[in-house]
């Protein structure tokens, strides 16, 4: 067993456990055909839901770090202007130190946008190996027995074997049709997810920053990666990746709607919704309290009525 297999062993163990558990659930409780492709597809979907639910804390951490990265961009731009044209070693080291201090102070991380994707990679590779072995009717390491592997290897979804790929399709047009649709949906969902971050959850002050320029590049690179690599994925793996993309898109929509970046379009829309409902955010409450406090002295300094005798004395 090589090092790569040793690293993936615990992930494969968990994946086999989840996959076979959902398969048992659908066959025993819902009385579905254990050899049917739809049963295996639903088992893969169940696997995705468990994995992505487990990654929610990491995703929340990513969102907070991304927001901090956006808010810190004006300070980073000032820092870049400060050291612009200085290429000596001392200046570069000083700039690096100040950047790290700024990241530490604001709790931001330049690599935060890649964390959930990187966290999923061991799961993805493990699932790829499990399904790749199953499509050859090979038993897994623990829970995926030879009978279950044989069942998966011969399962088909609308006439397309789950073990087939876009190019290795056994001459079945259904494989290319379903694979093509799924590759398009994978690419589109990834693009929409990244696009809604840039269009709705972006502070205008950060539009010209280096961070946002990187995000714009990722907007087109990630969908392109899905488009190119999708043709080599078995349909079973693509069902996992597509479901995961849909989860990310929905999760991102909820986060942007309820936890938007201050100053962004989504933040203004949320403030308007709260205003229509008669609810104020903390910032709005502070502003309102400050306005009331400023008006109170003006209201207490009202002109008092002056008596006639007093007015005569003042006139003298």
Question: Could you characterize what this model shows?
Answer:
The chain has two domains: 3-72 and 108-269, no CATH class; 74-107, no CATH class. The longest helix has 28 residues, at 173-200. Helix 8 runs antiparallel to helix 9. Residues 283-303 have low confidence and may be disordered. Strand 1 and strand 2 (160-161) form a beta hairpin. The relative contact order is 0.10. The chain is built from 13 helices and two strands, in the order H-H-H-H-H-H-H-E-E-H-H-H-H-H-H. With 316 residues, the protein is an all-alpha fold.
Taking the alpha carbons of the first and last residues, their distance comes to 109 Å
Taken as a percent bin, the fraction of beta residues is: under 5%
Please bin the fraction of helical residues.
Answer: over 70%
Low-confidence stretches: 283-303
Find the structural class using helix and strand composition.
Answer: mainly alpha
Largest sheet: 2 strands, antiparallel
Number of domains: 2
Strand order of the largest sheet: 1-2
- What count of helical segments does DSSP give? 13
The chain-level mean pLDDT equals 80
Run of helices and strands: HHHHHHHEEHHHHHH
Please tell me how large the radius of gyration is: 29 Å
Say how many strands there are.
2
Shape: elongated
Topology:
Elements: H1 3-28, H2 37-54, H3 56-71, H4 73-82, H5 89-106, H6 115-134, H7 146-153, E1 156-157, E2 160-161, H8 173-200, H9 210-230, H10 235-258, H11 265-276, H12 282-300, H13 308-315
Antiparallel strand pairs: 1-2
Helix pairs in contact: 1-2, 1-6, 2-10, 4-5, 6-10, 8-9, 8-10
């Amino acid at each position: 067993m090589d090092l790569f297999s040793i690293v993936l062993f615990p992930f494969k163990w968990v994946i086999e456990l989840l996959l076979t558990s959902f398969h048992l659930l659908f066959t025993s409780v819902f009385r579905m055909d254990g050899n049917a492709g739809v049963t295996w597809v639903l088992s893969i979907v169940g696997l995705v839901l468990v994995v992505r639910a487990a990654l929610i804390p990491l995703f929340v951490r990513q969102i907070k770090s991304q927001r901090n990265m956006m808010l810190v961009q004006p300070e980073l731009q000032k820092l870049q202007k400060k050291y612009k044209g200085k290429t000596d070693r001392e200046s570069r080291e000083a700039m690096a130190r100040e950047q790290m201090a700024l990241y530490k102070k604001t709790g931001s991380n330049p690599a935060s946008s890649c964390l959930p994707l990187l966290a999923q990679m061991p799961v993805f590779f493990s699932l790829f190996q499990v399904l790749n072995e199953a499509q050859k009717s090979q038993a897994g390491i623990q829970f995926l027995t030879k009978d279950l592997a044989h069942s998966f290897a011969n399962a088909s979804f609308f006439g397309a074997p789950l073990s087939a790929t876009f190019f290795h399709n056994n001459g079945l047009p259904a494989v290319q049709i379903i694979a093509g649709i799924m590759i398009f949906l994978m690419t589109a969902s990834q693009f929409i997810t990244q696009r809604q971050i840039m269009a709705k959850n972006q502070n205008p002050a950060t539009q010209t920053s280096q961070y946002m320029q990187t995000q714009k590049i990722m907007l087109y690179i990630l969908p392109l990666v899905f488009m190119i690599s999708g043709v080599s994925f078995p349909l079973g793996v693509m069902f996992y990746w597509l479901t995961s993309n849909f989860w990310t898109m929905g999760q991102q929509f909820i986060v942007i709607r309820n936890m938007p970046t201050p100053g962004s379009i989504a933040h203004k829309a949320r403030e308007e919704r709260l205003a229509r409902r008669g609810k104020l955010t903390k910032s709005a409450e502070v502003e309102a309290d400050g306005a009331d406090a400023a008006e109170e002295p003006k209201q207490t300094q009202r002109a008092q009525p002056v008596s006639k005798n007093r007015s005569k004395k003042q006139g003298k």
